[in-house]
Design brief:
The structure holds 2 protein chains of 2 kinds. By secondary structure, chain A is of the alpha+beta class. Chain A folds into 2 domains: about 120 residues, Immunoglobulin-like (Sandwich); about 30 residues. Chain A is about 30% helix and about 35% strand. Chain A has a 5-stranded antiparallel β-sheet, with no helix packed on it. In chain A, strands 5-4-8-9 form a 4-stranded antiparallel β-sheet, with no helix packed on it. In chain A, a hairpin with a 2-residue loop joins strand 8 and strand 9. Chain B is mainly α. Chain B folds into 3 domains: about 80 residues, no CATH class; about 150 residues, no CATH class; about 190 residues, no CATH class. In chain B, strands 1-2 form a two-stranded antiparallel ribbon. In chain B, helix 14 packs across helix 17 and helix 14 packs parallel to helix 18. The longest helix of chain B is centred in the C-terminal third of the chain and has 31 residues. Chain B is globular, with a radius of gyration of 23 Å. The chains are: A alpha+beta, B mainly alpha.
């Protein structure tokens, strides 16, 4: 009896711990880091998987000593990665999106909202000044297809089940009477 | 409720009074319509495809150009629908998975309550308003180009159908509430197939099995009585009356397109209203897909002093609906001088004459999606098996060829509308008054046709 309890306890603990790490992992955001000419750019999204639609991000620029860049005049654009584009369909391409930035909670950190219209490879381009020189860092990432909205599906299913249940009860009542 | 089949006396000779072109004279066809397999043999496969399409729309790729559900619904089915309605009347409505769902729900949990009076009285108005609201919401929230939006629309309709099937008798949804049913009814009036009772036989019938049903087969699901039916607007060719009639009175025959519209006995203002707003809807669909739509929107934003799309589009939508309605009212006012009928009477009567042009405009508009994006149906289907065709052309025909076809269709529709207006005028007026009335409505049809042709001559954006 004790052995069985012990086995169950160990098994449950393993399962809980492994799933809890998964749960924690799922809440981790996406971070992309890149270093160009001694400047380190970090782009962080709140979600681990990026989906089409509005996605909030923060971007920070640090110098070689890890200190925030001052007077960097940071400007950020978002665009789809065209490097693998064959360009043969003759369709007019959208212009890169200019993103408005707000100062973040820490010094040298900025936040913004990017609207990814479709899945695929995207680039956020950070343009900034370092000692009067213009620099650009491209931060690449994937936007994945959005999954189903289970809340909506569940809502509709609930209403349908309710309608059918009420109708069935009413029918039964009317047959009895 | 169910009646037993009671054949009329043998003195009746149906063959002498039945129509020459009756398709039911073909024994194999008649046997098929009367068999237990009809219409299920069409309904169940379509229901399976529909279920998969809904699944794709709500759980498949979130981008329209990758989604088989979007391609299947808006590039294949929606463009084919008006063509099907022209060729086979409301046959689609018996194949429609929503109708089947209504029947299944009704069979198991249906309470079979009678249709409320307000629905019977205002059903078409509800359909008119729903149709306008769905078109408006499509543009504002992007239902067509967003698979999830399309999926939600289908789920909303599914829920409403289940509610209607669980509560009301027969196909209350299809007859009084389905927005597509209103459109289908209008187009079917101009369609090439009609089901009718043979009056000489029906007038001696006392069983009315076609309406009431028998122990084996239910009565007309669309609340129609073939004995008095003079329109194909509400007949979905389910075949129940053919199966139930003990006197072999029912005929299914082909007819000249638009023929039913030539002699409308009791024109209804709500039907005329739907036919003229469909013209407005075709205008809106075309205008918002034109590449100059962005410029029009900018001008409107400057004029209204707001960039809010809800406001700018609602104004555009309102104007687009108002133009054809005002034109029809004005034409009625001018025609009043010739035919002495009231504006309301003219609006109701001659609104039916717009139906052929509506149908042509609808087919022509969607022909672009069918022929310029048609291959996307195949590509997205192959995409289900992991084969991707990004960047490949989706066109079946070149844009210039499609444009020529669109002009031809509009020309045919215009001729249909002009001739229908002439026949409507002829059916109710003397020869002297006929000329003036016909000319006035001919000018209206030409104006509407020119507006259509102008819109089709401009480059259009794709759905996928």
């Amino acid at each position: 009896m004790k052995l069985k309890f012990f086995k169950n306890f160990v098994l449950t603990t393993i399962l809980v711990l492994s799933f809890s790490t998964l749960a924690f992992a799922a809440t981790t955001g996406t971070q992309i880091n890149k270093q160009v000419d001694g400047v380190k750019a970090s782009l962080t999204f709140a979600n681990e998987k990026l989906k089409p639609g509005s996605n909030e991000f923060t971007i920070s620029l640090l110098d070689i000593n890890g200190k925030p860049l001052s007077n960097a005049n940071l400007k950020v654009t978002a665009d789809m990665d065209r490097s693998t584009d064959m360009g043969g369909d003759g369709m007019e391409k959208d212009k890169p999106m200019m993103i408005d930035l707000k100062e973040g909670s820490k010094k040298g950190e900025y936040s913004g909202m990017a609207d990814f219209k479709t899945k695929g490879k995207w680039i956020i381009k950070a343009n900034f000044d370092v000692q009067g020189q213009k620099k650009t860092i491209d931060l690449n990432f994937d936007v994945q297809s959005a999954g189903p909205n289970f809340l909506i599906i569940g809502g509709f299913s609930g209403v349908v089940v309710l309608i059918i249940a009420i109708a069935a009860i009413n029918k039964k009542k009317s047959i009895k009477s | 409720m169910a009646n037993q089949k009671k054949p009329l006396g043998q003195d009746l000779s149906p063959s002498t009074v039945k129509k020459e072109k009756d398709l039911l004279k073909n024994k194999k066809f008649k046997k098929f319509i009367k068999s237990k397999w009809y219409p299920g043999v069409f309904q169940w496969p379509v229901a399976l495809i529909f279920a998969f399409i809904v699944y794709e729309l709500i759980a498949g790729p979130a981008e329209a150009h990758d989604n088989f559900g979007t391609a299947g619904t808006w590039v294949l089915w929606w463009p084919l629908l008006p063509i099907l309605l022209l060729l086979f009347g409301r046959f689609w409505c018996i194949v429609c998975p929503f109708g089947l769902l209504n029947d299944v729900v009704q069979k198991f949990v249906g309470n079979n309550k009678p249709v409320p009076k307000f629905l019977r009285k205002y059903g078409i108005w509800i359909i008119d308003i729903t149709f306008l609201m769905i078109t408006w919401s499509d543009h504002v929230w992007g239902v067509v180009e967003n698979p999830r939006g399309s999926g939600i629309l289908l789920l909303m309709i599914t829920t409403s159908v289940i509610f209607s099937g669980a509560l009301f008798e027969r196909r209350t949804w299809c007859r009084y509430l389905c927005f597509l049913g209103g459109l289908s009814g209008n187009y079917s009036r101009a369609g090439m197939v009609e089901l009718r009772g043979t009056s000489d036989i029906c007038k001696k019938c006392t069983t009315a099995s076609c309406y009431k049903g028998t122990s084996e087969v239910p009565g007309c699901p669309m609340f129609e009585f073939p004995k008095t039916m003079d329109s194909s607007a509400e007949c979905n060719l389910c075949g129940n009356c053919v199966k139930n009639c003990p006197n072999d009175s029912i005929t299914i025959s082909t007819r000249i397109p638009t023929k039913e519209l030539w002699n409308i006995k009791k024109p209804k203002i709500e039907v005329a209203f739907l036919s003229i707003v469909i013209m407005g809807i075709v205008f809106v669909q075309n205008i918002t897909m034109l590449k100059i739509w962005g410029e029009i929107l900018n001008s409107l934003e400057n004029f209204l002093g707001t960039t809010n799309y809800y406001i700018t589009f609602t104004v555009t939508f309102f104007i687009a609906m108002l133009i054809p309605i005002t034109l029809l009212l004005l034409t009625g006012l001018i025609a009043k001088k010739f035919n002495k009928a009231s504006i309301k009477e003219n609006f109701a009567r001659f609104g039916y004459a717009v139906i052929p042009l509506d149908l042509a405009g609808h087919i022509a508009h969607n022909l672009f999606h069918l022929l310029a994006e048609g291959k996307s149906v195949g590509y997205t289907f192959m995409g289900l098996f992991g084969m991707e065709y990004h960047g490949a052309s989706t066109a079946i025909l070149s844009n210039s060829t499609i444009q020529i076809l669109q002009y031809i269709i509009i020309a045919i529709g215009t001729v249909g509308s002009i001739y229908t207006a002439y026949r409507i005028a002829k059916s109710s007026q003397t020869k002297e008054k006929l000329f003036g009335t016909s000319i006035v409505y001919t000018i209206l049809m030409i104006l509407l046709a020119v507006a259509n042709i102008l819109l089709f001559s401009l480059p259009m954006a794709m759905r996928m």
